[in-house]
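## retry 2 of 3
previous attempt timed out at serialization; input unchanged, resubmitting
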Amino acid sequence: MSDARSGATRLEGDGKRILMIYGTPKGASFCHALGETYANAARSKGHVVRVLALGELQFDPILHDGYEHSQTLEPDLLDAQREIHWAEHLVFVYPVWWGGVPALLKGFLDRVFLPGFAFKFRGRSQAWDKLLTGRSADLLVTLDTPSWYFRWIYGAPAHRQMVRTVLGFCGIRTRRLSEFSPIRTSSEEQRQAWLRKAEKLGLSV
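## retry succeeded, writing output
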């Protein structure tokens, strides 16, 4: 297999091709600290890690006409599709806001995970082909809500959305979903422990 950028041939035994997607508009956050720790650990094991910081991309996050009419993809989104095709393993790092993923990440999914790219319906039937099958994903998710409350009281809507109705729908198998919460009241000691957890996740890809 070839690296889409360098054209270098991947040899047997080489590391995985990993794409890390920061789903927050913020330029610096604990999400970024988690992602950088994960990425550095993965690189130390010989994996190739590329990064998409959605807050740095130029695109309209609104799918104005739904899927009834095509909407021209901006260059950054075309690049994102190429990167997703290149990757064997995806890492989504994002906070939960109002029980769901940030609007920027939702807009990215709406614009990029399109019919013909991520999935394809079979005629007029309810059956569909999962066009991104064969890829795996890790989700690193920060919350201010305690994990138990988010799961048992709110029903973990953001988790179900990402794991089942987005990634699973397109054939991407979520390997691990790791929560880091509550962020707002966490101590420096707790954050260091979470960073160590992110490091272990990156080492075990």
